[in-house]
Amino acid sequence: MYNRLATTYAILNLIENVGDMLNRNLFAGPQELRWTTKSTFEQLYYSLGAKYIWGISRQASRLARIIKDRAPGGLAASAARRGVAFALAVEKNRQKIILSHCLLAVAVVSAIDPVIPVVTNQTNDVYYPALNWSDNFDWMLMKELASDNRNVLVSPISLKIVLALLYEGSSGATEREFQNVLQFGSKKEVRDQYHDTLASLQVSERNEYVLNMGTRIFLQTEIQPKQKFASIAKDSFNTDIELMNFSDANSSSHSINSWVEKLTNGRISQLVKPDQLSETIMLIANAVYFKGTWRNQFPKNQSFSGKFYLPFEDNFLTITVPYMTTEAEFYYADAPSYDAKILRMPYRGDRYSMFIILPNSKGGLPSLLKKIHLHTLKNLLYLMDKRVVKVTLPKFKFDYQARLTTTLQKFGLVQMFQNTASFPGIARGNNTLLRMLVVSDVIQKSGIELDEEGSIVYAATEINIGNKIGETDAVFDATHPFLFFIEEQSNGNILFAGKLENPLDEEALPLAPRPSD
């Protein structure tokens, strides 16, 4: 044991020194960051090997947890965190079809709410952000949609699954745009990536949460899917293809809406209307439904009504909203660079967590949105520590829908919306119809409910948990607008990302007109 500890200390000391230098430069400008990455990486890459370096940085955090009580002066924990910063610094910097011709209803249907689980023994809550956590597209999408003062909820993973299916069937300039905007590698790499992603989104065997995710391609009966595309869609993306006579719009819309309604447990009953299908050739629909219960419960008998502050011009309006509160151990971090604090709230089952990023000031959300970035946020997640936190959150629910066509064009996905779009790998048959395969609309619908439901089962135990774990280390009072996201922990995929501006604003705004309208 002593030899292993000594070896570990040596590794951690190496990471301590390298990581300390990188931490000072991690968020420098692009030129400085490239220099730091290059100089450090070249010194260690050839002597240790790239895989060994990645292994050290990833395992250091785990080793530190095991031996931190034996390490003098908190060396292990400090070095491990800096080791993760080292891994981040050398990480590669990446940053319906509807009406007229075709209908690609990239309609991401989502709902999130609590569920009462079967009571099971829970393991200790340990959180390590995945090394390949999230990507730039997730936060580009969130920042673009969060620019107004309305509640927002998007599902990046759902949208990317549908775009990955389109990428599989694309060629030429259309294919290159997918590669540039979404940082897609080869088609085989993308297939493998999403096969692993979908495999990680497992259903709970102990009824601790519910996760329904499905993708289906509805294809006009006059054309047939290519055998290779159908095989890849099924094997890599868990996607079925269903032939449909879109000229019978009433029957087609009923079939599509029934599929979505079943997958979302009745939360979304109408994805498409008959008049949207009259000239449809293909529709791709993706639906996600997540229903989870908090690991640390919010006792119902501690809920109360209180003020929530809404920024209004140069001042604030106050509204009275229902709050829930609890006190327990959570992963928490102060984030001075964001002028905010971050809280992780795990769901039962140890696979999913909600993160809340709360500005320190009541009117700090616009500034936070400007500052937030994949790499800075990722680094902050690695620096989170488990602390006793008194948490106060508003209960809320709202629906959201957005037309994403203009947003995707703004990001650089332009070709797929034009008559020059090229999707030769998807289908065969009527050449006239195949030439009309062009994306004309991308729509996402979603909904969320957040409250303390189910906590009554555990109220007697959970009410006193604060007294068992020591004094409160931090207070997290979410009494003004904040950001949140829900991740799957093993691969770091963001299922949902959102913004709460007003807990009482439940209705989704009507969809904006299509760009061509």
TrEMBL record:
Pfam families per record: Serpin
Entries under SMART domains matching the protein: SERPIN
Protein name: Serpin domain-containing protein
Cellular component, GO, one term: extracellular space
GO molecular function, one term: serine-type endopeptidase inhibitor activity
Keywords of this entry: Glycoprotein, Protease inhibitor, Secreted, Serine protease inhibitor, Signal
Ranges of residues in domain Serpin: 139-503
Protein localization: Secreted
Gene3D superfamilies in alphabetical order: Alpha-1-antitrypsin, domain 1, Antithrombin, subunit I, domain 2
Keyword flag Secreted: yes
Organism domain of life: Eukaryota
Family of this protein: Belongs to the serpin family.
Species whose genome carries this gene: Aromia moschata
Main location per the UniProt record: secreted
